[in-house]
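REQUEST FORM: STRUCTURE PREDICTION
Request ID: SP-0412
Submitted by: Lab K.M.
Chain count: 1
Length (residues): 151
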Amino acid sequence: MAEFEKILFPTDFSESAENASRYAISLAKKYGSKLYVIHVVEPFTYTTDFGLDYSAQYMEMEASAKRLLNEIVASIKKDNLDVEGTVLSGEPFVEIIKYARQAHVDLIVMATHGRTGIEHMLLGSVAEKVVRKSPYPVLTVKKTGQTFTMP
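STATUS: Completed
RESULT:
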């Protein structure tokens, strides 16, 4: 039987991520796991292309992410769980996998919700990339009420 001493929960603060957090928290309680909650802020890739400086907006996004992450961590601590929160910067799927390696996690729990439409076709979803490239098991949690209709 698998032991989950360390569980990584990446969040984008969406409703889908909140749903996935219930699974991460439940597993952490069941196994007495340490829970790592992370959020990855994507830097603006077009900043230098147009000579525009988005550093103030980026700093505000990062500050907002830290506030939201601290709220999640404080809420989880109320359940007497060992939890650590971190805000990272970079390409989300890359940073999630890098963090998982550094923390030597046993499981990644994340929502399937991500980009939609043309963005998804061009870039793929973060969850999909993590599932394909992670050396660790990944539990993906569907959005509540999401259904699949057979063709």
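NOTES: DSSP finds five helices and five strands in the chain.
Reviewed by: T.R.
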